[in-house]
Design goal:
Elements (H helix, E strand, L loop, with lengths): L2 E6 L5 E5 L5 E4 L9 H18 L15 H4 L13 H10 L7 H11 L8 H15 L2 H10 L5 H22 L6 E2 L2 H14 L3 H20 L1 H9 L3 H22 L3 E3 L5 E3 L4 H18 L5 H17 L25 H25 L12 H17 L6 E2 L3 H7 L5 H13 L3 H5 L3 H16 L10 H17 L2 H19 L1 H14 L11 H31 L1
Helix pairs in contact: 5-16, 5-17, 6-7, 6-8, 7-15, 7-17, 8-11, 8-14, 9-14, 9-15, 11-19, 11-20, 11-21, 12-13, 12-19, 13-19, 20-21
Length: 564
């Protein structure tokens, strides 16, 4: 039975009809089956769809006029390449979707570890998706070490460490979690770390000390999942969204100051710097990245990086003398009894939890891998792997290692298992020997990517209900104070204080406190299971596909134009 999407109401109802019969199904991630919601929506939206088919100009039902559900929309909030498949990608999908021809013993082992048949994919196709993910994420190798070099890190050693730890973390995560999530340093986290070190006047040894201990804390939180959920529940969604926006603004500002596009003003706090060759090349690269993102071209960030770097090498020199070299990493640890890093440790740990929870849920929803209960498969192991990899990275003078938002590129292409992550890990390991090329990347190549990352994170602003003062004022104060004080902790603290006092005056704080206590004192309701796990995963996989179709309606004209 083939299902075709004939309607998606703007409050998140995904409506399917069978082409061979009048049967209709409605999927909504915000409602359980026991509240009769789907039955009501099914009749209403199905009737509206039938009317629309008979008369395309007929008015929509009132439900279709509602705003987009934040939960459905947020599946694309942190992921840059979440777009529908184009013609070429569909042909590649068909070519790689054939049954895998491997020895029986090897096929049985791969199936046991990665559940290819259960998730309806093939080995060849997972390898293809892994290549897409690696190309999309490759830009972190020159960008992140460039930020660490500003606070005393040795540039080449940071590149080697980042490449090695990304490879080790991705390979470990592929077997432990079996999820298509790349283990790599998010650019925003690395920039926050570098800025925090500058503000506190910390040395490189003290910074690595903070990374190691924050990694230990993250691994402990992963081993105790209720602790992570408790910390997350303490932070309102409006402040979580505003925090992501504030980090995006810091990231974009770091990119602009890197090329002196924004400088300290003589009569104002900030001013625009003089136009130079570096700025012209960076802006040209940013335009190319934006255009490629508009047409959903894979590897847009990597392409912008290559363009800016090559143009700078041509006009100003600086090309590497060699392409391949033998890597020689260095280790660096601080004094465990140094108390000056305590605040940075808590700042980093808070940011880890916020980033992992937001990214993991968004990516899991996008791939249709989220369980019926809303839980992410093997989320605890994901925290543990990221924590242990961060410890290793800190020991070798590297950045914090979490989940890369560029995982969405492969997930959108169809990645469903850890094989795509395994491919990324192997390629990151091979990239270690090409560190001379990454070390020669100029700021004109990295700065536009930082600005583009800020644009992606700024998408979280739509998660805030700006019509409700109870949420808009704390959110605005949070996203305003984070970039202007260069401190996530200060921005979140200021926004949280306002949120609490507004809640006290409006009476919401009492109700929220009661709900929060009840969520931990009352046992959670058991989720009704289907006949087996395959049916449960199939429904979630269908939801992930429909989320991609959701974007297809918005970009249909653009894709048709590009095809012509």
């Amino acid at each position: 039975m083939e299902l075709e999407l004939v309607e998606q109401s703007l409050d998140g109802d995904l409506v399917l009809v069978d082409e061979e019969s009048p049967a209709t199904a409605v999927i909504n991630p915000l409602h359980d089956d026991d509240d009769n919601y789907t039955a009501v929506v099914k009749d209403e939206v199905t009737a509206d769809a039938e009317t629309a088919n008979r008369n395309p100009k007929s008015p929509r039902s009132p439900r279709a006029a509602r705003r987009v559900s934040s939960h459905v929309a947020d599946a694309h909030a942190l992921v840059p390449d979440a777009a529908p498949l184009n013609f070429i990608e569909k042909k590649i999908h068909e070519a790689f979707s054939q049954p895998t021809k491997v020895p029986e013993w090897l096929g049985d082992y791969i199936e046991y570890v990665f559940k290819l048949r259960k998730r309806e994919t093939t080995l060849e196709f997972e390898v293809y998706c892994g290549l897409i993910q690696f190309i999309s994420c490759l830009y972190v190798l020159p960008v992140v070490p460039e930020q660490l070099a500003r606070v005393g890190y040795e540039h080449i050693s940071s590149i080697i460490c980042t490449s090695v730890t990304c490879g080790i973390g991705s390979i470990a995560a592929s077997f432990v979690t079996d999820m298509p999530f790349i283990i790599a340093p998010p650019t925003s986290v690395s920039i926050f770390y570098a800025v925090s070190m500058q503000q506190a006047g910390l040395t490189r040894e003290q910074g690595t000390n903070a990374i190691i201990f924050s990694g230990i804390g993250l691994a402990i939180i992963g081993a105790v999942p209720p602790l992570s959920r408790f910390i997350t529940k303490l932070i309102p969604d409006c402040i979580q969204a505003a925090t992501a926006v504030g980090i995006g603004l810091i990231t974009a500002l770091a990119g602009a100051t890197e090329i002196n596009l924004v400088i300290r003003g003589k009569y104002t706090i900030l001013d625009m710097g003089p136009i130079t060759d570096e700025i012209v090349i960076a802006i040209a690269s940013l335009i190319v990245v934006a255009a490629m993102l508009h047409y959903h071209v894979k590897g847009a960030f990597c392409s912008g990086l290559i363009l800016g770097t090559v143009l700078w090498w041509i006009t100003n020199g600086g090309a590497p003398e060699s392409i391949v070299a033998n890597p020689e990493p260095e280790t660096s640890t601080g004094n465990p009894k140094d108390g000056s890093t305590v605040l940075l440790i808590f700042n980093l740990l808070f940011l880890y939890i916020l980033t992992l929870n937001g990214l993991a849920r968004s990516l899991s929803d996008l791939g249709g891998l989220t369980k019926k209960s809303g839980a992410i498969p093997r989320a605890g192991w994901l925290f543990i792997v990221c924590g242990l990899t961060t410890i290793l990275s800190g020991y070798f003078s590297g950045p914090p290692i979490l989940i890369s938002p560029e995982s969405a590129a492969g997930i959108k292409a169809g990645a469903k298992t850890g094989i795509s992550t395994l491919v990324c890990g192997i390629l990151f390991g091979i990239s270690t020997f090409f560190y001379p090329v990454f070390a020669a990347v100029p700021p004109a190549g990295t700065a536009p990517l930082l600005i583009a990352v800020g644009v992606v994170l700024f998408n979280n602003v739509k998660r805030v209900d700006w019509t409700d003062i109870r949420f808009s004022v704390p959110a605005f104060c949070t996203l305003f104070f984070i970039p202007f004080t260069y401190s996530i902790l200060r921005g979140v603290a200021f926004g949280y204080i306002i949120y609490i006092f507004l809640g006290l005056f409006t009476g919401d704080m009492i109700n929220n406190t009661i709900d929060f206590v009840q969520s931990y004192t009352n046992p959670p309701p058991k989720v009704q299971q289907d006949h087996d796990d395959d049916d449960d995963h199939h429904e979630q996989h269908m939801l992930g596909k429909l989320l991609a179709i959701y974007d297809m309606e918005a970009t249909e004209n653009t894709i048709n134009f590009a095809a012509h």
